[in-house]
Amino acid sequence: MSAREAIAATLSRIEAIDPGLGAFTALTRERALARAGAVDRGEVTGPLAGTPFAVKNLFDVAGLPTLAGSRINRERPPATRDAFLIRQLEAAGAILVGALNMGEYAYDFTGENIHDGPSRNPHDLTRMTGGSSGGSGAAAGAGLVPLTLGSDTNGSIRVPSAFCGVFGLKPTFGRLSRAGTFPFVASFDHLGPMGLSVAGIAAAYDAMQGRDADDHWQADRPVEPTLPGLDAEGDLRVAVAGGYFARNAAPEALAAVRLAAEALGATGTVELPEAARARASAYVISAAEGAALHLDRLRTRAAEFDPATRDRLIAGAMIPAIWVQKAQRFRRWYREQVLALFEEVDLILAPSTPFRAPRLGQTTMIVDGREIPLRPNIGLFTQPISFIGLPVAAVPVRPEPGLPLGVQIIAAPWREDLALRAARRLERAGIAAAPVAAL
To answer: 287: how many CB neighbours lie within 10 A of its CB?
Structure first.
């Protein structure tokens, strides 16, 4: 079919299914159809020509206010320019079809937004998508679009990827430009793709690479394509994260990791030293940096926040500076210890979440016979990794019938190629797959 026919069909499917799913907050219909026409006329070409995609609504989209999941931001004037990563994807021929629901100001692990309603898990509409990139996970998992963009500060790409059964990539911190996006925690924030295939997210990642002078956080790295090497042969030294990760996961989450480990020929376990302390430090820094960003809004418009977000930010504003200083000092030590592990292995496997997607509104979870608070523990296994900016490919694995689970494939800095290569091997072996939900 023509690109215009494909985009028209995509928009029709979104309009038919999304009212019950809650993935989108805006469609860019006229823009998308005009862009598709340019593809059909040969005016737009590239490796992603005609591919529809959508972005978390913290990305600037020309003509739309950048909501970042909030009520307050609705008063902002529409963006006048697309975010850098949108421009990069469109330069490769992809076609933006809309903006996606998310947790307020990205401070969320559930996907339950009180302003726009919750994004719902496409595999069971009574369950969470995970957050904060919940709309990104739902839109891909429902097959509304094959590619979405999300952000990941403490797990916001990897958690929805796991709950919604899609692939995701959190690149190395500083790899992709964040210019034109609403921040949460400047020293943790990452942007990356989510989608239905490893080749799809690799192609998107490759297209989005490139130096952007508007982002002073971005590392000065050359473009390093990953798509050509996805099916490269050669051994990968793979280990499984033990200790903290084994103790806190439900049996089905550990079973998913075992399946991936067997398929990749993992040879033993490694322990990330002081992972629990890393998670605690990530919480301290996230709360303090997030509160500093929103302090004026908290002083003048506190009633317009989601109460759960507001209360966490107010608590963050009261954290003593010495705690933040200690957390940052520990962060440097922890990074050195974890990087040393990659002298012996190429990749480390860990669960993405401790459990499958909970029900909407659920507040506690039973793990290993213990009742634990739900919301703060969804990111139990993602926070110790993004805390030090490591690249992670998130793959969906189902060790038994039921809702999806996710496995993190963690690599050394700048080795996204190895993480994606392992993800591709799991996909080819039938261990990792992102089936479109039957809606």
So the answer is: 22
Residues 110, 202, 427, 346, CA torsion sign: negative
**What is the C-alpha separation between 174 and 428, in angstroms, rounded?**
30
Total structural domains in the chain? 1
Tokens of 353: 């979440």
Distances (CA, A) of 352 to 213, 357, 377: 33, 11, 12
Q: Is residue 187 annotated as part of the catalytic site, yes or no?
A: no
Considering the candidates 56, 70, 161, 386, report the single residue annotated as catalytic: 56
The whole-model pTM stands at: 0.97
**Six-digit token pair at 127?**
């369950």
pLDDT in tens, 307-365: 999 999 999 999 999 999 999 999 999 999 999 999 999 999 999 999 999 999 999 98
Residue 397 lies in a domain: yes
263: number of Cβ within 10 Å: 18
Q: Is residue 439 in some structural domain?
A: no
First-to-last alpha carbon distance for the chain, in angstroms, is: 23
Q: Residue 125 CB: number of other CB atoms within 10 A?
A: 15
Give the domain range for residue 263: 3-277+321-428
Q: What are phi and psi of 167, to 5 degrees?
A: -85, 150
Whichever domain contains 213, its CATH number is 3.90.1300.10
**Pick from 57, 163, 101: nearest CA to 403:** 163
Backbone angles phi, psi at 258, to 5 degrees: -60, -40
- What pLDDT, in 10s, does the model give residues 227-264? 999 999 999 999 999 999 999 999 999 999 999 999 99
- Helix, strand, coil tally for the chain in percent (to 5): 40, 15, 45
Instruction: For residue 132, indicate whether it is catalytic.
Output: yes
Cβ pair 266, 235 in contact under 8 A: no
Alpha carbon distance 260, 169 (integer Å): 17
Q: 171 vs 202, 218, 415, CA distance in Å? A: 11, 12, 9
Burial class (CB in 10 A: 0-12, 13-18, 19+), 435: middle
The residue type at 128: M
Catalytic one of 156, 161, 281, 286 = 156
